[in-house]
Design goal:
Oligomer: single chain
Radius of gyration: 21 Å
Order of helices and strands: EEEHEHEHHHEEEHHEEEEHHEEH
Distance between the termini: 32 Å
Shape: globular
Largest sheet: 10 strands, mixed
């Protein structure tokens, strides 16, 4: 990222904005990224007028609760730098926003971890919610102090909740999952901590885990896909000019599974329909050699044109997208 927040250590009351090119040279900048819902007006934003002041100092107590919690979590992980969109991208400078939003997918892809305020529908709700006991959990909370709980639980694994059911209920139905911009944030990050309503969920490229599944549960393998769930280098991915038509069809189906999940999400700015998933497209384009065009892939365009809109179409929104693209309409694809 162009800019990150230097959050220091421990409980320092001040943080500051830093330009990454001005940091001491290092092999890989380690930082955490935040995924969250803005939820309307964002009072604390990076603007041209406060840019210099925020490079000098930002008072943590003046930030929305979600940002304060993200700082605490990042410090707890032991990472010095945190990336938050509204504080690291100039919100009133169109050129800066266009440039930075185009590479936002890479910001999440390169983060050591993403913290997701999954259960919060705005930036004031925070990441932490009262702990809940799910599914007749026989555990006993002996003591609570300063946000920590001492819990005793039976070693006998009875009525352990199914990880897929928990994930569907507390992540897939959560507020952050309704927003279009958070789609690529979750798809591209290598690992993510979901702060849900009552507990924390861990998700990475190979498995999901929670306090009920401490060893993690791998994703089920689909019979129609040979390899999935892991990011690979460009040298490991065959160029599409050399693979068969069935393989291209497999890619087409996998892409539209993503498009379907993305298309049901909400956008505040309708013009961002392609931009909000462009990070995923750029990543695939870099690895595969395919050309990403208006939400479709040029080399398999005959397949990609076979999309349909679920239900009756609404009036086509004003959007600079060709009408043959799924991104030119609203609704589930």
């Amino acid at each position: 990222p162009t800019r990150v927040l230097d959050i220091g250590q421990n409980d320092a009351p001040q943080i500051r904005l830093v330009v990454t090119s001005e940091l001491p040279k290092q092999d890989l900048l380690q930082y955490v990224a935040l995924s969250h819902c803005w939820g309307g007006l964002m009072n604390m934003r990076l603007l041209v007028e406060n840019y210099t002041a925020m490079k000098n100092s930002i008072t943590v107590a003046d930030l929305p609760q979600t940002f304060q919690d993200a700082i605490s979590i990042t410090r707890g992980i032991g990472i010095q730098y945190l990336w938050i969109d509204s504080l690291c991208i100039l919100q009133d400078a169109p050129d800066d926003w266009t440039r930075e939003s185009a590479t936002m997918g890479l910001v999440y892809a390169n983060a050591i971890c993403t913290v997701s305020a999954t259960a919060a529908n705005n930036s004031e709700k925070g990441c932490f919610f009262p702990k809940k006991q799910f599914f007749d959990d026989p555990s006993c909370i002996l003591r609570r102090q300063r946000g920590f709980s001492l819990v005793v639980r039976s070693s006998i694994q009875q009525q352990v909740p199914v990880v897929t059911e928990m994930f569907n209920e507390f992540v897939e139905q959560a507020p952050v999952t309704t927003r279009a911009w958070t789609f690529q944030e979750r798809v591209l990050t290598s690992r993510i901590l979901h702060f849900c309503d009552g507990f924390v969920f861990f998700e990475c490229n190979t498995l999901r885990a929670s306090e009920y599944h401490v060893d993690g549960v791998p994703y089920p393998r689909r019979s129609n896909v040979r390899t999935e769930g892991a990011l690979v280098s460009a040298t490991q991915v065959p160029q599409f000019g050399t693979i068969s038509e069935p393989q291209q069809l497999e890619f087409h189906k996998s892409w539209y599974e993503m498009v379907e999940r993305y298309s049901i999400r909400n956008l505040t700015e309708q013009k961002d329909k392609v931009m909000a998933i462009a990070g995923v497209g750029d990543f695939i384009q870099h690895c595969s050699g395919l050309k990403f065009v208006a939400g479709l892939w040029e080399e398999i365009l005959p397949f990609n044109l076979l999309w349909t809109l679920e239900g009756s179409p609404d009036k086509r929104p004003s959007r600079s997208v060709p009408t043959w693209s799924w991104a030119s309409v609203n609704g589930t694809i």
